[in-house]
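SUBJECT: protein chain
CONTENTS: sequence, structure tokens:
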Amino acid sequence: MLTAVTVARGSRVEVGTPLFVQDEGADRAARDQAARQLQQARDQLANLEAAAKPTEIEQAEANLADAQATVQRAKFDLDRAEALIQSGAVTSQTLDQRRADFRSATAKVSAMQAMLTQMRAPTGRQGEIQAQQAAVDAAKAALAMADWRLSQRRAASPVDARVVDVLARPGETVAAGTPVVSLLPPSNIFVRFFVPEADLARVHTGDTVVIHCDRCHRDITATISFVSPQAEYTPPVIYSEESRAKLVYLVEARPPPAQAALFNPGQPVTVEPSGAKP
């Protein structure tokens, strides 16, 4: 439904001038929902990529340091037992125990190091992280689409133009694809005139013609852009006794945009070849 039309018939607009606004309540709600879903997906990804809590990592580091100290003590006891075994100060059983203690302490250090590495790594598996990243990308695309749909509820002029007509009013329900405002940019303004068959050979695409009109400040030049390949009888709108039964050719000429803006659609004009005297 249209909520506002901000231009009037016959007014001139520039690029970016607001034209009309449609009810955007549903699209704004959809956009907000897409934004919340994107934030949720990002939070889940951050949770998978995050390591363990800082306090848990600190505890693991302390346990590793304690295990490394135990290894050092076990190594010292082992070296001492190996030195005393020759003199008989220690038994073979004691030496075997010292070797077992050293191997056990070394294994605990390896286990503590692996645990600390795991705590510092992301909590999610690589496959889970990749899947969640894909979910974030999909949520971004959904938000971009919601933003675009919301932006379409507010129409702005894409060109400098004249408002030819306003086709709907606030409060009306407008179906998709139905025009609301009709614009006529200067580049789309052209002059149509008819050339008798006998004079067709003197008219070519790219030639310059002079246009005269009532209340024109000066004569305006235009460039011929089209010459019809087919003849037709003089249109009734320019019917006269002198021209009846004559074959004519439709010709179109386009003035420069700055000069085209001086014309009104349907305005009668007189066209002469460039250099001719009016």
About this structure: The CA atoms of residues 5 and 216 lie 32 Å apart. The longest helix spans residues 54-84.
